[in-house]
Write a structure and sequence with these properties.
single chain, about 270 residues, about 0% strand
Length: about 270
């Protein structure tokens, strides 16, 4: 995955730590309103407890990824001038950040789709979509603030669905579609889900020990506290690092190349 689609905190103005709100819960130790800097944000825009977020009560931060939107907004959209240096830009910066974040998430999926040989029949369409979305991310703050991201998603989604169908067809196994299924706490230990369509499924706290999720479509799947110990996610489609960070796993969990094994896994 290109570095431009990975968060680079060293070139960001701590936007996720300021623009986004959160409520005191199991994921966050305190309440914070949108536009209010997190109490752990330092003068250099770095997190003061980055290496100990989970034990400090901020596990919610460990499952968030801006997909590179933070540095794009900071260094491109606003030309490297922070909200501290130019307070009058703060409101607009906070409005634009989540818009660009959604566009970068689409870029991340489109980039993966283009890397899939099985999706070759739609590669030309995927390239055009990628160029269009990239162009939108280069727009002015005013244009981004007015952008209908939902409409952009509606344009891209059919291509991602086509990609999913083509890639999953290579799995050589027929599985029942579980798209959008409520599988909270489901007992799926050892389940044969190779090539399954799990798009948007709720797998919160599901038992997926030893399950075969290779080539499964995991776009939008909620894996919070799901047990992936010994599970096989080889070539899982549209999986993201935040999804893994939200789940539980161990040294035997098989991950796709380029993914990091979360530090909190056993």
């Amino acid at each position: 995955m290109p570095e431009t689609l990975r968060g680079d905190c060293s070139n960001c103005f701590g936007l996720c730590c300021v623009a986004l709100p959160f409520a005191k819960s199991a994921d966050f130790a305190v309440n914070k309103a949108s536009g209010e800097p997190c109490r752990n944000l330092q003068e250099d825009f770095r997190c003061g407890i980055h290496t100990r977020l989970r034990p400090s009560g901020f596990s919610g931060c460990t499952v968030y990824d801006c997909f590179g939107a933070g540095q794009k907004v900071s260094q491109v959209t606003f030309g490297g001038v922070s909200w501290r240096e130019a307070p009058e830009t703060a409101r607009q910066m906070y409005e634009v950040f989540p818009v660009v974040r959604q566009l970068h998430e689409l870029l991340r999926y489109l980039t993966e789709a283009l890397a899939r040989p099985a999706a070759r029949p739609v590669h030309a369409e995927l390239r055009r979509a990628l160029e269009r979305v990239e162009g939108l991310t280069e727009g002015s703050a005013e244009a981004l603030e007015k952008l209908d991201v939902g409409a952009v998603r509606a344009e891209v989604n059919p291509l991602l669905l086509k990609t999913s169908t083509l890639v999953r067809a290579t799995a050589g196994a027929k599985t029942k579609s579980r798209r959008g299924a409520d599988l909270i706490g489901a007992r799926l230990r050892g389940a044969k889900l190779r090539g399954a369509d799990l798009r948007g499924a709720l797998l919160i706290a599901a038992d997926l020990k030893g399950a075969d999720l290779s080539l499964a479509d995991l776009i939008g799947v909620d894996l919070r506290d799901a047990d992936l110990a010994g599970a096989d996610l080889t070539d899982a489609l549209f999986l993201t690092q935040p999804q893994l960070n939200a789940a539980r796993g161990d040294a035997t969990t098989r991950l796709p190349a380029a993914f990091e094994r979360p530090a909190h896994w056993a």
